[in-house]
Specification:
The protein is built from nine helices and two strands, in the order H-H-H-E-E-H-H-H-H-H-H. By secondary structure, the chain is mainly alpha-helical. Among the domains are: 130 residues; 134 residues. A hairpin with a 5-residue loop joins strand 1 and strand 2. This is Zinc knuckle.
């Protein structure tokens, strides 16, 4: 027992991690269970031994005087300390040790709950740190994309780009106008030169006609032919100035000039559309920001749903484990009232009332530890609740308990009912937590659908 207490104290005051403390606590619990079994076996063997003595005396196998001399002889343990052999003292000592082992079991359960809570908190801290790291990574990536977009906007300035395009268009327009003026001047020079040639030919023909005093009819016809030929040549002047090749080149140049002007107009219109899109860009950025927020919220909801579902699975495991533990129905105090007339003289061992109720149904002292202390103070047997004399032989030692069906204690001292009540409360709390978790999952799923 001293070793068990020292081990339990070492685990309680240890500054090591919860994993190692939990391992040491399991070792302490194994030692406690071993001691509990040993004490129970010792008590059973002692009761068997002291039950045989009256039979030996009755059969004259040993006299009572010889037994008294043997039992009164001083006895010593392995280290030389005096050891008692009195049945009553031994029973009281064993019961006290078993009670201490029960207190140790409760302490072990409390410490296990503390270590499991530390494990849960550590797991929660780890999950929180992972989520924070992922969020920082997401923010860093978004900030990097924002910087890249800002640099791209600064590199291509719309105003400078538009001014450059306008200058190029003005240069092309000036060159086109200069080329058209050159073509027009060349055509005017050609027409003027042909006009001067026509005037000179007509003047020469007129002077030749006036120099002949008696022109003949043949000469008159020649003059008329010359004049007609001159008119024909005059009619051919436009064709000489604007021949087929010149017309095709002029039309091609005019078509190219029109195409250039149309391309410039379309480019300007496209650039204006780009400016309008740039003006509408803040609205697009706001929409993108809202979409990113919705996506982030969806991810958060998915993580919360996953964590809540894991919590539901854990609660279901807890309920299954609690269902597998041994339990019994609640103690029915009303049913323990005495009804039979021949039992009206029975006295409750714990509260002392006569003819009212059985000891198992005492409502004045419901706590099992309190009942055990009362029995120890009154020196009563834990199986039959009778007063223990020096040669007490329990007639109910092998009678099974009404609640747990075990032997070695009276039904009024069975703690299974208290443990069953605790199990029922824990199951109720686990089921209530599971119901709340399922409601939360449904709400999160509804919000996730709305975000989609």
């Amino acid at each position: 027992m001293n070793n068990l207490r020292d081990r339990l104290k070492a685990v309680r005051t240890s500054d090591k991690g919860w994993q190692e403390c939990l391992t040491q606590l399991e070792l302490v619990e194994a030692i406690r269970d071993k001691l509990h079994v040993e004490f129970a076996l010792i008590r059973s063997d002692l009761r068997t031994l002291y039950a045989v003595i009256p039979l030996l005396i009755a059969t004259d196998a040993i006299s009572k005087r010889q037994w008294d001399e043997l039992i009164n002889r001083p006895q010593y343990d392995d280290v030389g300390k005096p050891a008692t052999v009195n049945q009553g003292k031994l029973e009281l000592t064993i019961s006290d040790q078993i009670d201490r082992l029960e207190e140790t079991r409760l302490s072990i359960l409390e410490m296990r709950q503390v270590f499991l809570e530390e494990e849960r908190k550590e797991t929660q801290r780890f999950q929180t740190s992972v989520l924070a790291s992922l969020k920082n990574l997401h923010d860093t990536v978004e900030k990097g994309f924002a910087n890249v977009n800002q640099d791209s906007h600064e590199t291509v300035n719309p105003e400078n780009f538009k001014l450059t395009i306008q200058q190029e268009i003005a240069t092309l327009s000036a060159e086109s106008a200069h080329l058209a003026e050159g073509i027009k001047a060349a055509i005017d020079d050609a027409i003027a030169k042909l006009s001067r040639t026509e005037s000179y030919d007509i003047t020469s023909a007129a002077s030749t006609e006036s120099s002949s005093q008696n022109p003949s009819q043949e000469h008159s016809r020649e003059g008329e032919g010359i004049i007609e030929e001159m008119h024909e040549e005059r009619d051919e002047i436009p064709r000489l100035v604007g021949d087929d090749d010149s017309d095709e080149e002029s039309e091609q140049m005019e078509e190219e000039e029109g195409n250039i002007i149309r391309d410039n107009e379309q480019f300007i219109e496209g650039f204006d559309a780009m400016e309008e899109e740039d003006e509408e860009e803040p609205d697009d950025e706001e929409a993108l920001r809202l979409a990113a927020q919705r996506a982030q919220r969806r991810r958060q909801i998915e993580n919360e749903i996953h964590q809540t579902e894991q919590g539901v699975f854990d609660l279901e495991d807890i309920v299954n484990l609690l269902d597998q533990e041994q339990s019994c129905a609640p103690r029915n105090y009303e049913r323990g009232a005495i009804q039979r007339d021949d039992e009206r003289t029975l006295r409750c061992v714990f509260c002392g009332r006569i003819g009212d109720h059985y000891s198992d149904s005492c409502i004045a002292h419901r706590n099992i530890m309190e009942r055990r202390l009362i029995l120890d103070a009154l020196r009563r047997c834990e199986c039959c609740l009778e007063i223990e004399f020096s040669h007490h032989v329990c007639r109910k030692a092998n009678l099974p308990c009404y609640h747990c069906r075990a032997r070695g204690h009276h039904s009024s001292l069975c703690d299974l009912e208290e443990r069953s009540e605790d199990i029922r409360n824990r199951i109720h709390q686990a089921l209530e937590s599971r119901r709340m978790a399922l409601d939360k999952i449904r709400e999160l799923q509804r919000e996730h659908q709305e975000l989609n």
